[in-house]
Amino acid sequence: MTDPPDHAVAERLLIVNGDDFGRTPGINRGVIRSYDHGILTSASLMVRWPAATDAPAYCRERADLSLGLHLDLGEWVFRDGTWHCLYQVVDPTEIGAVRTEVRAQLELFRSLVGRDPSHLDSHQHVHLQEPVRAVAIEESQRLGVPVRACGAEINYCGDFYGQTGTGEPWPEGITVDALVRIVDGLGPGITELSCHPGEDDDFDSVYRFERTTEVAVLCHPDVRRALAEAGVRLTSFSSAAPRV
Questions:
Q1: Residue 78: what pLDDT?
Q2: Whole-angstrom distance, CA of residue 167 vs CA of residue 146
Q3: Considering the chain, what is the average pLDDT of its residues?
Q4: How far apart are CA 232 and CA 172, in angstroms?
Q5: Measured torsion, CA atoms of residues 179, 164, 149, 144, in degrees rounded to the nearest 10
Q6: Range of the domain at 63
Q7: Omega prior to 221 cis, within 30 of 0
Q8: In this structure, is residue 186 part of a structural domain?
Q9: Where does residue 33 fall: left (phi above 0), alpha (psi -120 to 50 degrees), or beta otherwise?
Q10: What CATH number should be reported for the domain holding residue 230?
Q11: Can you give the pLDDT at residue 7?
């Protein structure tokens, strides 16, 4: 038996999405640098934060940069063997409050950006738990856009991250070698890889010092070279993601 022709092999497409866009000026700069000089192709906007007003202007100058909504219902940190709430916008277990807040953040996104988001996801993946998941899927279907890790059309990869699941440092996760391994291991079809770039030290976050390292790795020429050698094509939610 002969090998199939090259065109019969499924193409591998990669969306590189920067979370937390709009949270601080430093995070905005990190996202934009990772787009201008690196492999980032999309970003997710946290509309409740002051720097969110500056983020859409960056995007208007970069037509290929997809912009989605990063739902922000709260932030939690793991300390002394349990999770502690740093802030909470609404109770994520109350479906009525969640639906009201999600729709309010969608309207704020529209007022800032002038259009609907290209995709939906959430801060600390709170949308993967019910009832937030149901609300996020409901809104994504109404908008006709994908929601992270909630559909078969787009694979999700969160392996490029500098902490463990309980917030312990994991610098091995955000090296050039780690990102190259992720690229080499991508399956066929569309994959979204999340990242958290940021510059300077103007943010108070459970994920803080790792952000500048991410920018350097996302902009490293070896990563771009690895994409070419692996035959992986960069794309964005606006360009390649299927409508739902």
A1: 84
A2: 28
A3: 92
A4: 23
A5: -80
A6: 12-240
A7: no
A8: yes
A9: alpha
A10: 3.20.20.370
A11: 41
Tokens of 235: 């794309």
Selected residue with higher pLDDT from 167 and 3: 167
Question: How much of the chain exceeds pLDDT 70, in percent?
Answer: 93
Residue 1 lies in a domain: no
| Residue positions counted in the chain | 244
Give me the number of domains the chain comprises: 1
pLDDT 10s digits, 58-84:
888 898 999 999 999 999 988 888 888
Measure CA 112 to chain center.
19
2-60 confidence digits (pLDDT tens): 444 444 358 999 999 999 999 999 999 999 999 999 999 999 999 999 999 998 888 88
Considering the domain boundaries, does residue 6 fall inside one? no
The string of DSSP codes covering the chain is -PPPPGGGSPPEEEEEEEEEETS-HHHHHHHHHHHHSSS--EEEE-TTSGGGGTHHHHHHT-TT-EEEEEE--EEEEEETTEEEEEEESS-TT-HHHHHHHHHHHHHHHHHHHSS--S-EEEGGGGGGSTTHHHHHHHHHHHHT--BTTSSSSEEEE----SB-TTS-B-GGGGSHHHHHHHHHT--SEEEEEEE----SS----SS-THHHHHHHHHT-HHHHHHHHHHTEEEE-HHHHPPP-
| Domain-embedded: residue 74 | yes
Structure confidence at residue 242 (pLDDT): 59
Strand 189-195 versus strand 12-21 pairing type: parallel
User: What separation, in Å, do the N-terminal and C-terminal C-alpha atoms of the chain show?
Assistant: 38
